[in-house]
Amino acid sequence: MKRLVLSCVSAMLLAGCTVGPDYRRPAILSGATPAPELASGHEATFDGAAPLPPRWWQLYDDPLLNGLEEKALARNTDLRVALASLEQAQASLRGVELQRTPQTSLTVDPTYGQASGDANGSPVALKPGAVYDAMESISYDLDLFGRLRRSIEAGRADVGAAKAALDLARVNVAASTAEAYVSVCSAGLEIAVTNRSIEVARQALDVTQRRFDAGIAGINDVVRARTLLRQTAATLPALVTQQRSGLFTLATLTGDAPEALPAGVAACASPPLIRTPIPIGDGASLLARRPDVRQAERKLASAVAEIGVSTAALYPSISIGGGFGTTATRLPDVVRDRAFHWNVGPLITWNIPNLSVARAQVATSNAAARGALAQFDGTVLTALRETETALVTLARQIDTERELAAARDDAATANANTAKLYSGGVGEFLDTLDAERTLIQADNSLASATAQVSQDQIALFMALGGGWQDTPAIAETSLRRIAMPKR
């Protein structure tokens, strides 16, 4: 330790000495370790060679969705909170950076009292009187061991983490807005399908009722047909609730009342879909783009810098400074030469007898840095897992939708055939009823599968971490606009 102190003091006029480890970016981000490939085996669904566009929602070519995204990214309250946190981090960094500039203070201390005669060498008590004292001091921390430099390094990393947190909030808001819009449109689609199914069931009931009136069909056929109609109609309230809930969510995300949303949103009955290969980029661009990975990396950098801050407490703090002032017993004398005084010199502070506390803090900082490294590794693994899961889920859901579309076509053909036979008096009612139920189920299953494809596409874009670049400015709220309570 003594050798390090002497070497730093000798180099004071050159560059100083910065204790603690120097930070290096993790290998997975610097390119030393290759990132994994994406979309392996799903090239027909995804385009790994094309980069993900910053505003991925524009791939849907849906003006309503574009407008909702613009409004949400400008007015969402979560983004305003994240922006305020970033401004706090930036203000804290400015405060640390200013500690590297000369610090000044002015003290003015007019008092009235009686000084101690013994303390002033007088054999008798001194008379009470006024004392006018003013002092201007200036000091500069030499930062020989890099405490301030490491503090600034940690502060800059904290600002980077706060920026990443804001970008992560943008990703979540963009995806949540698209999810809510998809929920509204999917509910609209399923409502339309259900209404068509209700009409099919109503037509079947009409045919059965006429056959019953003609004495061809029995009353049980009418009851069964009416039951099918009522069961189909019973699914509507839940779909309407889903639609309204999606509208309420959109209103919250965009900072609007539900009735202020564009009229076309509530009327949407076709969820947005991308039917061409989706551009996703490669694994390296994924990790560079995901804000949570960047946030974890910046937190790691801050934790490593804090080790240097803690280590600097093991060594003396040296600053130079001085001051000048005036002290007089009468107010007119404060400007006389005999009242002025000044001093200059170094100030050395070193808690030599109590280094155990500083060593404990160094151990704490080292443990925190190891935890931050583990958190970064976990964030990278989570990013890869979420993306690969989203890719597989979407690819398989597209296959499911394709099979259900074929099943729905078959059900429609079978229903048309049985209905024709039944209306001609050849077919059985139970066969007709079963065909109608199958068609209704096939229609609903296909609508649900299509809605799920749309939701899975949004989940993929969220996993890819896009949507924070090239966004509109966030509308800030001044404290002056907040109504203060009246007294």
Automatic annotation (TrEMBL):
InterPro entries: MdtP/NodT-like, OMP_efflux
Topological type in the membrane: Lipid-anchor
Organism annotation: Sphingomonas chungangi
Alphabetized GO MF terms: efflux transmembrane transporter activity
NCBIfam families to which the protein is assigned, alphabetical: outer_NodT
Family in the record: Belongs to the outer membrane factor (OMF) (TC 1.B.17) family.
PROSITE patterns named in the record: PROKAR_LIPOPROTEIN
GO cellular component: a single term: plasma membrane
The protein's name in its UniProt record: TolC family protein
Principal place of residence: membrane
Subcellular location: Cell membrane
Keywords: Lipoprotein, Membrane, Palmitate, Transmembrane, Transmembrane beta strand
